[in-house]
Amino acid sequence: MKRSCFAPMxxxxxxxxxxxxxxxxxxxxxxxxxxALLERARDHLARNRFAEALPLLEEAxxxxxxxYNIVGNLGIVxxxxxxxxxxxxxxxxxxxxxxxxxxxxxxxxIDKRLADAxxxxxxxxxxxxxxxxxxxxxxxxxxxxxxxxxxxxxxxxVIFSVEAPGRVTQRRKVExxxxxxxxxxxxxxxxxxxxxxxxSTTSSSDEVLPTWPSYVIVGVGGATVxxxxxxxxxxxxxxxxxxxxxGALRDDTGQPAPCETPSSAAVSSRCDVIARDLRxxxxxxxxxxxxxxxxxxxxxLGGVLFxxxxxxxxAGDTAITVAPTISLRVTGLQIHGHF
Length: 339
Description:
The chain has helices at 10-13, 34-45, 50-63, 68-80, 84-97, 104-120, 212-253, 265-309; strands at 122-137, 142-153, 156-163, 170-176, 180-187, 319-324, 327-330, 333-336. By secondary structure, the protein is an alpha+beta fold. The chain has 3 domains: 4-120, Alpha Horseshoe (Serine Threonine Protein Phosphatase 5, Tetratricopeptide repeat), CATH 1.25.40; 125-191, Carboxypeptidase-like, regulatory domain (Immunoglobulin-like), CATH 2.60.40; 209-309. A hairpin with a 4-residue loop joins β1 and β2. It is elongated, with a radius of gyration of 36 Å.
């Protein structure tokens, strides 16, 4: 799939080196040097045969990955073939390697196609722990680095693996949107130690505590806290009943403190009910306070046991956040924050 806005620059951009005659292929069909492969690829590019040029440029790039000419032409061909993730990856590499005194038209050709490919592909950024590791996209690219690795990927569901020496390889799946960056943090657990031989003995201090008792204890503590909250609600209900009854009694007797000197046996009986409800409120509040504190203590104990049970486990979790790619459009020109 091609975009018409790139047509005027096609002749200039498809060859990031000076014009020369394409070198004829050897009789045996092999190309010994990266330069010869590039020349042969340019022969196909002059005829818009992008599919034929692609394997030649890929082989040339494998032999000379430091040439911005080769990687730039590779990215341009991939862009013309609609391979957005690969195009964005190689064009951004060509942009990084572009010499300060390089031809402006070459830089412009790379920048425009890089902007377009970046809008059509997604970006996967993985923060690594430990800091050294490699990220491999299933059926795609691989990158290694320290602390953080960023890859251009095809938009949609992406399956990738993260690996590091002495760590358990993690495999993840995430949905990546076109023109946006998906950032994740992956913690690689330590590789399990070899199982001891049958003749060896293992001390009790090396045994790993199970985690299920901590879950049970935390659950009991949580249920206890919930019970205490229910008791607080019962106490509040008794206090509200006493307040309502006292208010009604004031309205009936016209006295601000009718229970200090009851005017009749009926008033005295209602005052007894109010006093009983207040006593229930006080008793339940004291008991509920103790229940909640006890539940919190039980939960804390469960948390301590859980921490002991995973003290030697580096297993981590993955947090996913999605952030838009930095993009600025000025009179049709797209400038991305990749450089």
